[in-house]
Each structure stands twice: as C-alpha cells, then as structure tokens.
Amino acid sequence: MTDSVLPRASRLASLALCSLMLGACTLGPDYQRPTIATPVQFKQAEGWRQANPSDALARGAWWELYGDRQLDALVLRLNRSNQTVAQYEAQYRQAQALVRSTRGALFPTVDLSAGKTRSSQGTGSSGSSLSQSSSGIRDTYNTQLGVSWEADIWGKLRRGLEADRASAQASLADLAAMRLSLQSELVQNYLQLRVIDEQKRLLEATVQAYQRSLDLTQNQYRAGISGKDAVFLAQTQLKTTQADLIDLVWQRAQLENAIAVLIGMAPAEFSLAASTEIPALPAIPLAVPSQLLERRPDIAAAERSMMAANAEIGVAKTAYYPDLTLSLAGGYSSSSFSNWVSLPNRFWSVGPQLAMTLFDGGQRAAEVDRSEAAYDQTVAQYRQTVLDGFREVEDYMSQLKVFDEEALVRNEALQAARESLRLTSNQYKAGLIGYLDVVNVQATALSNERSVLTLMQSRLVASVQLIAALGGGWQEPAQ
C-alpha cells in the first residue's frame, strides 16, 4: 500500500470515529408515562378481599376457577385453533419481522456485483462501412464489492427502531386482549349452555308433573268431581310448558354452534353432551387499581401505541438535519476476461456523503406537527382506556353484589312457592279446592324455579365479565 493511501485511510477512520461519537445524540422526547388519576380502591370493593398471587393455578388460567374439566379442554382448543387468534398472532409475527428489519438498518450494507457490458462508440462518419463500425465495439468485465453505512448521528434509525419495538409490543398486547376476549366469550357461552341444560331438566320434570295433573283432572272430570274447564286449564298449562321446553332447544343449539366456531370447528362437526351439574360460582378476589393498569392487555396495548407515537416525533425532527453516509467500494475492471482479476485492473473508492433538504415548503414542520398531534391522540386514547377499565370493574362488581342480594331473596321465595305447591296439590287431591287454584300455584312455583336459574346464569356471566375486566385473573402479571 502506498504512502498516499495511508493518510486517506487514517482520515476515513477518524471520520468514522467522529460519526460514532456523534451518534450518541438522539433527537425527540424520551417517553414518560402520562399522569393518570388512579383511585386508591374500587368504590364497590367493600366486602371483597384483596388479590394475592395464587400458585394453585397456572398463571392466566382463570377459567380453571369454575372447576369444569370440559371447559378447561375447550379453552385450550380455542388457544390453539381459533382463527381470530391466529390472525392476531400473524400480525404480531409481522411486527417482530419489522423490528428485525429496522434493526438491520443500523449496520453496514455490503453489496457484491459482477457483470459484463458491451459498448460501442460511433466514428462520426456517416459513410463508414459495417466493418469499421463493428471495430468500435468493446467488452468490459467488472466485479465490485461495496460497503455503505448510514451514520445515525441524530438518532433517526434508533428512534425508528424504538417505535417499531413499541408497535410490536402493542401488537402482542392486542393478541393477548383478543385471546382474553374470546376466552371470556367461550366461557360465558359454556356456562349459559349448562344453565340451559338445567332448565331443560326442570321443564322436563315439570311436563311430567303437569301430565300427571292432566290425567288426574280427566279422571275427576269423568267421575263428575271437576268440570270441563279444569281439563282445559290442565291442557293449556301442559302445552305451554312443552312449548317452552322446545324453545330451549334452539337456544342451546346457538350456544353450541358459537362454541364450535370459537374452537375453530364447523358446527356440524361439534356437539356437547348435556351435563348434570352447573359449575359453581367462584370466589373472586380483586386487584388494587394500580395492578389493573399492569394486567389488562388493552391498557398495555394503548400504552405501547403511545410509546411508538412518542418515538415517531423524534424521527420527524431528524429530517431537519443532514444524513451522513459512508461508502467504500473496490473491485476489478478489464476489457479482457483472461486477465480480468489482476492487480493492474483493480480500482477503489471511498468517501462520505452528506445529504440535506434545504427547502421543502414546510413539509418537515408539518410532519413534526402531525406526529405530535398523533402522540396527543394516543395519550387521550390511553387515558380513556384506563377510565373504561375502571368503569367496567365497578359495573361488574356492583352487578355481582346486587345479584348476590337478589339470590338470597329469590331462594326464599322459591322455598315458599314449593311449600305452597305441595299444600295446594294435597288440597286439590282431597277435593277441597278447584283446579284453578292449583294452576296458579304451579305457575308461580315454575316461575320462581326458572327465575332462580336465570339469576344463576346472570351471576356466572357477570363473574366471567369481572374476571376479564380485571385482565384475566389476579395472579402476578407475566412479564
């Protein structure tokens, strides 16, 4: 290497070192979580116990609180086969790939090229012969190795990587939020289906009882003890209850079909056998409000989107400053293939390049304003998501509290209705009262039975909604 090349290489190394030192500068604001008014506790938290990490349950497997193995298996199938979850998982993988691509821009780009060109230059004489023009054709063989690197002096690439990382984390949180929403939907459908199974058993037993009442009334009519009107009343009551029983069939079918789609199956390929038990209502401890912010995936997604928008401000501000690109190229060029790669045919080039926009009609300023406004929008969305989270928890806590109080009263009413029905039926069989009195008491007893089951269904659904509003349980949030 000649002495003239050494100073140039030294100057190039010094320039690269200076660029690396300047690279510590990063434009744009560093992210800070905006202030939010977080309550000390939930308004409806009186009577609830504070949440504690539970080692008895797998972290996040909140559906296991209902103690139903079939439900556990269905949720696992949803996690594996639900197509909406698959869509969000693919979106997250796209976001991860974008992060890797953006990170790659921080490193030099190395290119290798090799080729042959055939060129000709005219002699300038219009009357030249074909052989003369052909003699001007020249073949050139080239091979070149090039290295190019953009020095991230102002932090444009790093801010872009920061934005893409935050967007990828937001995509992961979106995936978790969608999975939690679908899990909640499946568990609600399953619990409602089990209550319908119990309602069907109730109506089937009631139909049998009403059939016996009709037979008894017909016998009494034949014996002249009761009138024809009692027979018609008994028939009306029986047929109405049979119609209610038929109505439950399509309701159950709808829930069964919804569960099939949630686990990624066609409804025709899925069936759920009736069960003799309704899952018990679990005891639900609550998290403190500050933990709610860390656990709910939709709140996490909103904050990650805010972080990405904050980084985009820095990217927009770097447009005011020049871009520095360092490039190095070297190779061989020859008109003959035989001695193409040889020392006399070598060439090289090295040097920095600065590029800067001097005038753009206000485009850069407008982009900075746009990115700042976009950040303000994500801040408002984040704060609204937090408020919605607190509201949902308060709503479901209040609902469950009211349902618990209502359940006590309805169970008392049910016991009184059952006792009244027993006494009235005995009086009718003894001929002391007419059948109209029995019909009224039977209708009241059946209404109370169904009301208790409907209330149980509402309590189970509300418990699922509360768990989902708490972010899917009260275990320590996964990192």
Secondary structural class: alpha+beta
Q: What's the helical proportion of residues?
A: 55-70%
Can you tell me the CATH topology of the domain at 22-81 and 154-321 and 363-469?
Answer: Outer membrane efflux proteins (OEP)
Q: Radius of gyration, rounded?
A: 39 Å
Q: First CA to last CA: what distance?
A: 55 Å
Question: Any guess at the CATH architecture of the domain at 22-81 and 154-321 and 363-469?
Answer: Up-down Bundle
Spatial sequence of strands, sheet with the most strands: 1-2-3-4
Main sheet record: 4 strands, antiparallel
CATH class of the domain at 22-81 and 154-321 and 363-469: Mainly Alpha
Please indicate the percent range of residues in DSSP E strands (runs of 2 or more).
5-15%
Could you tell me the mean pLDDT?
84
User: How many helices does DSSP assign?
Assistant: 10
Label the overall shape.
elongated
Low-confidence stretches: 1-7, 19-23, 53-58, 128-133
For the secondary structure, the number of strands is 4
CATH homologous superfamily of the domain at 22-81 and 154-321 and 363-469, by name?
Outer membrane efflux proteins (OEP)
SSE order, one letter for each helix or strand: HHHEHEHHHHEEHH
What does this structure look like?
- This protein is an alpha+beta fold and 479 residues long.
- It has a domain at 22-81 and 154-321 and 363-469: Up-down Bundle (Outer membrane efflux proteins (OEP)), CATH 1.20.1600.10.
- The chain is 61% helix and 10% strand.
- It contains 10 helices and 4 strands.
- It has helices at 5-22, 69-81, 83-104, 130-134, 156-222, 228-262, 289-295, 297-317, 363-429, 435-469, and strands at residues 109-120, 137-151, 323-334, 346-355.
- Helix 2 packs across helix 5 (156-222), helix 3 (83-104) packs antiparallel against helix 5 and helix 6 (228-262) runs parallel beside helix 10.
- The longest helix has 67 residues, at 156-222.
- The protein is elongated.
- Its main location: membrane.
